[in-house]
């Protein structure tokens, strides 16, 4: 019997097998590409978050005036742990502890981000905590709660290097003409007064000590040597740029000395950025009549360099 010749255009079984494998490989490649694309998008979205990132924690120094003992320093740790869905939004749970061993933990609310804005939700409606879409010269309304809000102003917007990465920095004043910076926001890190400091208000004075990501120290306040303090007047940062400010804290007289620098004038501002004292350079400054609290001392040099010190009036 005469055998039929294979049509040159008809696939042989081996060709069919190879074609099927190729098709399966193509389908698998597309599926993997889709998975990687979705995963990459989610990762990119998380990487672009300005504040809310997994495994973030903050150490904030708190200066408590009054009480017993008076003028007490302690440290608060704020961190995320777990997720929560409320309505259509996915939030991170926010916790805070006030002891070095992290044993006394308080639940502080929920936090989420959208379009460079960070929102904090407590027992009531959520409130705007940060807005990194703001630009220089803009004003915005900030809600402190308890039916109290205030208009704040963006003094400047730039980028600074934090742990090898460039981060957006927004400096804020409480009026358009103010010289003293009321607050500074940095992407990923938040306020230099502490991640929740604005929301908590000004009853206690706060300053950010350290920021951690995956237990790695990303940011450290150069005015302080540690990430944890507790006790009576535990922190006394008094030396910077060849200048010495002492005693700090003080109840009456503050002295400013320098290592051969030409100082032209000295100014003191309160926590809200209001100038409360100004003089041409003199070693001694009498602040006995000033109310108890935290102040900012600005020292001006002839070469226009300005050094800022945090001082405590007790």
Descriptive report:
By secondary structure, the protein is mainly beta. The protein has 2 helices and 22 strands. It has helices spanning 13-47, 197-200; strands at residues 56-64, 72-86, 89-97, 105-114, 117-121, 127-131, 139-145, 148-162, 165-173, 183-186, 190-191, 205-213, 216-220, 231-232, 239-240, 243-246, 253-258, 263-269, 275-280, 284-286, 293-301, 306-313. Strands 1, 2, 3, 4, 5, 6, 12, 13 and 14 form a 9-stranded antiparallel beta sheet that branches. A 5-stranded antiparallel beta sheet has the order 7-8-9-10-11. Strands 15-16-17-20 form a 4-stranded antiparallel beta sheet, with no helix packed on it. A hairpin with a 2-residue loop joins strand 2 and strand 3. Mean pLDDT is 77; it is low at 1-18 and 28-47.
Element-level helix/strand string = HEEEEEEEEEEEHEEEEEEEEEEE
Mean pLDDT: 77
Low-confidence runs: 1-18, 28-47
Total beta strands: 22
User: How many structural domains can be distinguished in the coordinates?
Assistant: 3
Terminal Cα separation, in Å? Answer: 115 Å
Structural class: mainly beta
Strand content: over 45%
Shape: globular
Rg calc: 28 Å
**Main β-sheet, in a few words?**
9 strands, antiparallel
Number of helices: 2
Write the layout of secondary structure elements.
Blueprint: H1 13-47, E1 56-64, E2 72-86, E3 89-97, E4 105-114, E5 117-121, E6 127-131, E7 139-145, E8 148-162, E9 165-173, E10 183-186, E11 190-191, H2 197-200, E12 205-213, E13 216-220, E14 231-232, E15 239-240, E16 243-246, E17 253-258, E18 263-269, E19 275-280, E20 284-286, E21 293-301, E22 306-313
Antiparallel strand pairs: 1-2, 1-12, 2-3, 2-14, 3-4, 4-5, 5-6, 7-8, 8-9, 9-10, 10-11, 12-13, 15-16, 16-17, 17-20, 18-19, 18-21, 21-22
